[in-house]
Amino acid sequence: MALDPTDWTAGMRQLILLALVGLGAQLVDGSLGMAYGVTSTTLLLAIGTNPAAASATVHLAEIGTTLASGFSHWRFGNVDWKVVAKIGIPGAVGAFAGATFLSSLSTEVAAPVMSLVLLALGLYVLIRFTTFGLPRTNLGKPLRKRFLAPLGLVAGFVDSTGGGGWGPVGTPAILASGRLEPRKTIGSIDTSEFLVAVAASVGFFVGIGNEGVNFTWVLALLAGGLIAAPIAAWLVRHIPPRVLGSAVGGVIILTNVRTLLRSDWIDASDAVKWPIYGLIYVVWAAALAYSVQQHRANRDVERATETV
């Protein structure tokens, strides 16, 4: 039976689109510590994939992308292995539980509440890094297991039930503590996500098998992510902490405002959403510009002091 050239062309376009989405999502995730799952899952849902299969597809692709990302971050010195162990293992437990026993529960009610908390953390991160730069009061102090373990458990559960959430929950919480510099926060979150992706994938296979999972889509997302992983790890190494903190803060704010505006609590119309998004983009761009300007000014002062 001959293949219809039109169907073949459409299929190839879809795979190329998925690969580009995987590349873009991993570039953002590896640079800012979040957004791979949210971006990829949103696309899969938009083309009609059921939520469980979409999340399973993304997590299968993430096994490869997070392994490559973790290796790249390790090579560039962006990983704190103590943090990876303390948050990654509880994260895997939460992801497996969410994928098997609890994935049928609706997170629609919990999502707006969590978004409010994360929005507050995002505002803190944006203001703190933009105004004062890298917080140094607590920098270098150890992150306790009693803080990281519950954080990992919640982030892993949200990640598997919502198709994304490991980075958006974990990254701002650790950044807000001021105990770990941004590049190591992002590198450690990305590396520990490998454990979460494996646990969630096992959980989905236990719960739903491979029903609805398109392994060609998995490979397409994976291919794009593998290309982006080392580039993102290199970027994190070279972006100044102050600028990186402002960038992450803006992503956190935009992501969670979007969730709130789409929730049943608000259910805002497009006429309300887009002006709010526009305002956030303007403020975010101004914060980034100020952070860059202040970084350059401080660098010039340091160089002048060294030459005296």
Explain what the structure shows.
The protein has one domain (19-293). The mean pLDDT is 80. Helix 2 (36-46) runs antiparallel to helix 3 (51-75), helix 5 packs across helix 7 (166-177) and helix 7 runs antiparallel to helix 8. The protein has helices at 5-32, 36-46, 51-75, 81-100, 110-132, 145-162, 166-177, 182-208, 215-238, 241-262, 270-307. It has 308 residues and is an all-alpha fold.
What is the H-and-E element order? HHHHHHHHHHH
Query: Tell me about the biggest sheet?
Result: none
Uncertain stretches of 5 or more adjacent residues: none
Shape: globular
Gap between N and C termini? 80 Å
Q: Report the C-alpha radius of gyration, rounded.
A: 20 Å
Average pLDDT: 80
Number of strands: 0
Number of separate structural domains: 1
Keywords: Cell membrane, Membrane, Transmembrane, Transmembrane helix
Protein name: Probable membrane transporter protein
Family: Belongs to the 4-toluene sulfonate uptake permease (TSUP) (TC 2.A.102) family.
Pfam family, one: TauE
